[in-house]
Design brief:
Helix content is 25%, strand content 28%. With 338 residues, the chain is an alpha+beta fold. The chain folds into 3 domains: 67 residues, Uridine Diphospho-n-acetylenolpyruvylglucosamine Reductase, domain 2 (2-Layer Sandwich), CATH 3.30.43.10; 113 residues, 2-Layer Sandwich (Uridine Diphospho-n-acetylenolpyruvylglucosamine Reductase, domain 3), CATH 3.30.465.10; 104 residues, Uridine Diphospho-n-acetylenolpyruvylglucosamine Reductase, domain 1 (Alpha-Beta Complex), CATH 3.90.78.
Length: 338
């Protein structure tokens, strides 16, 4: 384990923002994480812990220690007639885990195909797509407590999962480093194809009885058609969360904007697609300087090559203000802004 000084983080964030970290270190084993916590007194240091860098917007040089998690490995730890338990190390590429499950006909993660990032970030964000969230298959995770270097286990209910939320973004923020995540997947077919885009894609392909591979391929096709490859065009995927508004507010907006989509969560709340709101405000495909909202998906803010983090942040704030002024709805970033 080598600690480097004054390293550019441009290769390590999918926005491609060129800022420097005062210190930079890669960790490849749980033992290295523990040594970093105890020997280097990590609890008292300013730190940035990341894997794939796909959920970061860096707006300035980082004067602390940037820690890239590179723990790899996927293992089946137990199974019975109905389920299999898969443990993935936190630095494993998320899509690799999904493909491992699909290849082995383990059901539960296929709707989450092609989501960027690493396994360790998945429970932090409670990532989700097309009617599925991590919490649906999450069994437990193991983390290193930064203050002590001890291993701690968090069960599903202890993670306090919410919409793109968990305990690790709130009261446990900066207190733990996730090193592995265990999922409980089904060995029997239980596909979720009710989400409109998946259903439509399967119909277009003439697939009436889809396999797990068919659903995964459909999700990959949908995401590929809407979301730019960060290797080609810097981005962090969906920049904003889909807002949840009161049903009365949604009904009032429906009278003024008859085409506004909404998905009831319960009798009181309705989820509204942030991408639709942003598009209606005229930002889809609009370029401002070196940044803009993508031409195929307004929810994705992009770096056309030389944008700074502050330029992207300024655009995000402009979008937030315009959406609120137009619809009276507050949209909040999904990405971690540093």
């Amino acid at each position: 384990m080598v600690i480097y000084q004054n390293i550019s983080l441009k290769p390590y964030n999918t926005f491609g923002i060129d800022v420097n970290a005062a210190q930079f270190v890669r960790v490849n084993t749980i033992e290295e994480v523990q040594v970093l916590c105890t020997t280097f007194n990590l609890a008292e240091r300013k730190k940035l812990i990341f894997g794939g860098g796909s959920n970061l917007l860096l707006t300035q040089d980082f004067d602390g220690m940037a820690i890239k998690i590179e723990l790899n490995g996927i293992n089946k730890i137990k199974e019975d007639d109905n389920f299999v338990w898969i443990k993935a190390m936190s630095g494993e590429v998320w899509h690799h885990l999904v493909m491992y499950a699909v290849d082995n006909n383990y059901y539960g993660l296929e709707n989450l195909s092609l989501i960027p990032g690493c396994v360790g970030a998945a429970p932090m964000q409670n990532i989700g797509a097309y009617g599925v969230e991590i919490k649906d298959t999450f069994e437990e995770l193991t983390a290193v407590e930064i203050e002590t270097g001890k291993l701690v286990t968090f069960k599903n209910e202890e993670c306090k999962f919410g919409y793109r939320e968990s305990i690790f973004k709130n009261e446990a923020k900066d207190k733990y480093i996730i090193v592995s995540v265990t999922f409980k997947l089904s060995k029997k077919g239980n596909l979720n194809t009710q989400y409109g885009a998946i259903s439509d894609t399967l119909k277009q392909k003439g697939i009436a009885e889809p396999s797990i591979r068919d659903v995964s391929d459909a999700v990959i096709a949908i995401r590929s058609s809407k979301l730019p490859d960060p290797k080609v065009l810097g981005n962090s995927g969906s920049f904003f969360k889909n807002p949840e508004i009161h049903a009365n507010q949604y009904d009032a907006l429906k009278l003024k904007y008859p085409t506004i989509p909404g998905y009831p969560l319960n009798t009181d709340l309705v989820k509204v697609p942030a991408g639709w709101l942003i598009e209606q405000c005229g930002f889809k495909g609009k370029r401002i300087g070196n940044t803009g909202a993508h031409k195929d998906q307004a929810l994705v803010l992009v770096n056309y090559g030389e944008a700074t983090g502050n330029e992207i942040f300024a655009l995000a704030k402009q979008i937030q203000a315009t959406v609120f002024e137009t619809f009276g709805i507050k949209i909040t970033p999904e990405v971690n802004i540093i």
